[in-house]
Write a structure and sequence with these properties.
The protein is of the alpha/beta class. It has helices at 2-21, 50-58, 71-80, 109-114, 186-199, 229-232, 241-266, 307-310, 337-344, 361-366, 428-431, 484-498, and strands at residues 25-31, 60-62, 65-66, 119-125, 144-148, 159-161, 167-169, 172-173, 176-177, 207-212, 273-279, 314-318, 326-328, 332-333, 374-380, 385-390, 393-397, 465-468, 526-528, 534-536. It has a ten-stranded mixed sheet. A four-stranded antiparallel sheet has the order 15-16-17-18, covered by helices on one side. It has a two-stranded parallel ribbon with strand order 3-14. The protein starts with a helix and ends in a 5-residue tail after the last strand. Residues 24-346 form the Sulfatase N-terminal domain.
Length: 541
Amino acid sequence: MVMRGMIALLLALTATVEAQKQPPHIIFILADDLGWNDVSFHGSGQIPTPNIDALAYDGIILNNYYVSPICTPTRSAILTGRHPIHTGQQVDTILGSRPYGVPLNETLMPQYLKKCGYATHIVGKWHLGFFAREYTPLFRGFDSHYGYWLGHQDYYDHTAQGGNGYWGYDMRRNMSVDRSASNKYTTDLFTEEAVTVINSHDKSKPLFLYLAHLATHSANSYSPLQAPQKYLQKVQHIKHKQRRLFGGMAVGLDESVGQVVQALKANNMLDSSIIVFSTDNGGPASGFDMNYANNAPLRGVKDTLWEGGVRGVGFIWSRLLRKTRRVSQQMMHITDWLPTLYHAAGGDTGELVAPDGISMWPALSGGGASPRNEILHNIDDVRHIAALRRGDWKIRIGHTYAGHWDGWYELPEATVRAPDSAFVTPLTRILGDPPRPHDWESVVISCGKKPDNASVNCRPTVAPCLFNIRDDPCEYNNMAAARPDVVSALLGRLAMYNATQVKPANKPIDPKSNPKFYDYVWTWWKTLDASGREHYVLNDL
């Protein structure tokens, strides 16, 4: 009996040692079009996000964190660790009817993580090209995919408008069309799938789960904002119809986060997990893109280079981080996730191909200074826009939409806090009741009184504008005339980046992509031969 007990103890110790050697599980949750003012941990209690808040408070809130201004560039940056100007994704997004994607010579995060033994799964939105099947997730390093290939879909019928009036169904399980999803709410479908992936995961391997939600992106133009009553009941205090619908979509997103964390806990995976939560770009506020996200008090909206377009909602949570429950002012960019997570997984970041990102793992874990001091927001020579931040200074050139979305967009009604009952979260049983970080007040951006000339003192199509983002995060005061030396230095940095950018990969709409030729389903319409040359699937169209 003694011998048997010793053997059992040795086996248990061996299992513990092996578990310690195993890389951490990585859960990357990407929200779509979530604005700065759309989570309650940023100080607004209008939309209750208690599950997101609990993780943020217990982890590290990223308060100086930047994303790209629109969907495809951010997603390519996450998965390649390279800036969109270096992958040809710097202009616009990939419409379903355009025949291009992230180049096949780019190595993506799941391909790198497989070297460390990971099982890799994507649930949700792809939006990195599908005109040929070689561009789709299962050919880019993922073991499975449940979700859609375009940039959006209807939350219930799962169809998508994809440019030039084309319209078709877009929900896949791996490479097969999933018709069983019809009339089921997209957010719930993705939550259920993510939980299934976790429950069925082989615990002898580390898991990489990329959960890229549709929420809170607009659906199709005929019904852009959609949420079921079970989520709307938590935001009945919001009287503005569109903002209330948006709030319901955000509540569904928050519920999803809570269920994923509970599944990790139930499977004894939580304590060895890294959870990243990020938006893909700033929020489309006040009706932009038929949406009612909000970025207050920041300036601008999605698809602008103002802070409201590029300053991202984000946090990282893990028991493996040494210094948590804090607000990080460490400068971080969306391209940093690949080297950061590959570092945490035990990978050699020297293996990454021409990364623009920097591993933030040591700085985040230990609370030291960020290794990053500069962020290129974008250079888009088609629309003649550019912006860059170096230290506290930000320069921007040109504007989108003729400047019509260059303002500050408050909530459409006076803020009324959601009832306390809406902030109850089951994660309290798992995380305890994490208090707000002692420095939580620093997460709330305060800009002071807006000067009378704030809307006119920057004319970026006439001359570059300069802002001190540390002192003026709301971009009220153009300092270009006062600091021509800084303008000159930052223009030099932009010129340096401009010399390295590749030609945008964009291609015009291809009529042969029209889903009407494929039973009104969005699918690949080209094949690649052994030499990489493209051929149409249907040659008689």
